[in-house]
Amino acid sequence: MKEEKLTNSHENYDESQEYEFEQDEEEVKKIHLVLEDDSEVDAKVLDIFKVNDEEYIALLPDKDQRVFLYKYEENEEGIRLNNIENQEEFELVSNEFMKLFEGSED
Predict the structure, then answer these.
(1) Where is this chain compositionally biased, Basic and acidic residues type (predicted)?
(2) DSSP class per residue in 66-86
(3) Domain carrying residue 49
(4) What is the pTM of this model?
């Protein structure tokens, strides 16, 4: 099994941005992020999942081995990603993602 590193990236994306999913010809959902330092990252959406009634998204940036985890909200205005600020919450979310990810490798 390929091991992925999880991160609550300190290269935070710009929370003022709204995001939209794109699907390429292989039906893989991708998202384009603009980080706070104005750098841009395209990432594959690995999963959107719930933990304690909150939704989270797992992203795998192109040309990177780290998985980024964010809070995820979707409404009529679009998609909003929020940084996970609390270390305890991040550990809970990353553990849940690892359980889901390990189960999908079977």
Answers:
(1) 1-13
(2) EEEEEEEEEETTEEEEE----
(3) 5-104
(4) 0.71
